[in-house]
Design goal:
The relative contact order is 0.08. The protein has 20 helices and 10 strands. With 666 residues, the chain is α/β, with parallel strands linked by helices.
Length: 666
Amino acid sequence: MSDGRDADATRQSAVPAPRGAELPLPPASVPAGPSDGDIADGLEETYWSVYDGAASKATVGQILARLPRIVRRIGRLAWAADRTATLAVVVLQLGTAAMTAFGLMASVAVLRELFAEGPTPDRVRASIPQLLVVVGFLAARALLEAGVAVAQARVTPKIRTALECEFLTLTAHVRLEVVDDADWHDEAYRANDRGLFYARQIVGQVVSLAAALLGLVGTAGVLGVLHPALLPLLLLSVLPVGAAAVRAARARFHSFKRWNTLQRRVRVFSWLLLERDAAAELRSDTAQGALLEEHRRLTTRIAEEDTRLGVSSAGLTLAGRAVGGTGTGITYTALGAMLIAGWLPLAAGAGAVLAIQAAQSSLTRLVDVSHLVYEHAMWVDDLLAFQERCRTLQPRRSGLPAPETVRTITLEDVSFTYPGKDTPALNGISMTLHAGQTVAFVGVNGSGKSTCARLLAGLYEPQDGGTVCWDGVNVLDMDAESLQARVGCVLQDPVRFPFSALANLTVSRGTLTEADPQRALDAARASGAEQVIAGLPGRWEALLSKRFRGGQELSSGQWAKVAVARGLYKNAPVLLLDEPTASMDPRAEHAVYEAVLRDNPRPDQITVLISHRLAGVVACDRIFVFDGGRITESGTHQELMNLGGEYAAMFTLQADGYRAEAGEAA
C-alpha cells in the first residue's frame, strides 16, 4: 500500500500555480458601503425603478401633451373591461361637475338675497328657497360622486384582473429560450411589480384628473356668466398657484425617487438579518452586531436626508404660497375695484371669490394628479408593450399534434445558440434514438448535454437549418405544446411545488386535482418516493410547504425522489433524466437506476440519462460524449472503454477515486 504522505503530495502537486500578477495584501479596514457623498451613488438603477421620478424631469408642456393619449389608453382598457360601468363613470362625472357649477350659481343667488335692501329677517327668509336649492345641488353632487365611486369600483378590478390574467398567460407560455434572456426577465418582473400595480391605481387617478379639470372649467363658466372680465382675473389668481403646485409636485417626485434608492441599501441589511437561509451562518459567525451597526449608520444618514428634504419642501411650499398669495391679492384688489366702479353687484363679487377659491383648489389637484398620471402611465404603457412583445414570442399553436408514441427520434445537424451568446451551445449535432433504448449523455459542464435534451423535449427549436424529427416528421410542423406533453423531464433542481404530495406527481399531467391512483403508486414505488410520502402526516394529501399550517418540509434528496416520481407518472414516450439523483445518497441513487433503467424497461419509451457520475450509465444501450457543443464519441460502455478516449479517461478517473477512498478507509 502506498504511503499516505505520497498521496497527499500527489494531490498538492495537482493544484495549479497562480496565474498573472500576485494578489496584494488587503487593507486592514474597508468601508461596508459608500461612506461619503450620496449613498445612492453606490447602487445601480434597478429594473423596477426606471420610471421613478420621470414626472420631476418632464416639462409642463410634455405632461399636457401626453395626457390625452393616456386618457384614451385607459379609456379603452376600461371600455373593454366593463362598458356599462365605464359609461356610468363618464356620465356621472359630467353630472358631478354640472352640480358643482349649478351650486356656485345658486350660492350667488343666496348672496344676492342676503345683500339686498330691507330688514335682515326679511332678507334671510327670502334666501331660504335659494339655500334649499344649494342643498339640493350639494346632495345631488354627493349622490353622483357616490355613483362614480361605485362604477369605478366595478371597472377597476376588472381591468386589473384582465391585465394580470393576460400577463401570466403570455409569460407562462413564451418559448424557453426567451426565459433564458436576462433582459426579458427584467422586463417581466418590472411589468409585474409596477405595471400591474399602477394599472389598478391609474383608473381612479384619471377619474380624479377629469374631476379636477371639469371643476376648473365649471368655475370658469360661472365667472364668465357673472362678468366676462372676471376670466382674466381667474388666470391671474390661479396661474401663480399652479406654478407653485408644479414646483412642489416635482420636488415630491424627486424626493420619492431619492428616498426609494436610499432605502434599497438599508433593505439589503434588513433582508440579511431576517433571511432564513442566512440565519445559521449569521449566528455561527456572530455577525449580527456588524450588520446592525452598518444598518444603524445608514438609517442615520437617511434620517438626515429626510430632514433636509423636509426642510427644503417646507421652504418651497412657503415660496409657492407667497407667490400664489400675491396673485390672489392682485385678483381681489381688481375685484374690489370692479365693485367700487359698479361693474359688479356685491353678491356677484362674493360669488366670484367663492369661484376663484374653488378654481385654485381644482388647479392644485389637477397639477398633482397630472404628475401622477404621467408617471404611472409609463408603467402601464410598459406593461402593455411587454405583453405585446410576449405575443410574438409564443410557441407554435398550429400544426400537427405530436404522436402519442414514437419509434425513432432523429437529430440532423442540429445547432443552438443562447440569446446574447456568441459561442453555440450545440454545433452540428446528429444522432438517432430508438424506442426501447436507454441513452446517456455525458461530458463536462457546458458541453451541451442539457441543451440537447431540451431540444429533444421540444423546449428549444433547432437553428441554422438543423432538424429534429419524430418518426420522420419535423417537430417544427407540430404543435409545440402537444410535443412537450409527450416528454417527461426530471431535472437536477426540480420545482418544489407548494401543493399536496399527490399534486406534485399529477402536475406533470397538467392537473392538480385529478389522479390515476395506481399510476401514482407505481411511480412512487419506482422512484423511491413511496417511503417519503408514507412518512408524511396525511401521506398523499400532505402539503409540501412550510408556508401552510401543518405543511411539511422535505430534504433535497426526498424532493429528488418526488421529482423522479413526477416524471414517471407522466408516462410519456420520451423520458429525460437530467442529473436526477445528484442530491440522493448512493443507496437511493442505485435504487432509482435499478428501478427506472434496468428493472422495468419499456419497449415503447426512449429514456435519456444525463449524469456526471458515470457508474449509472454503464448499462445504457448507447452513450454520447459531448464536448464543446459537439458529439466527440458514441457507443456502448465497453466500446468507449476500448476506444480509450475522453469517456474512458473520465470513467477511469472516477473509478480510481473510489478505489483510493476505499483503500484509505481500509
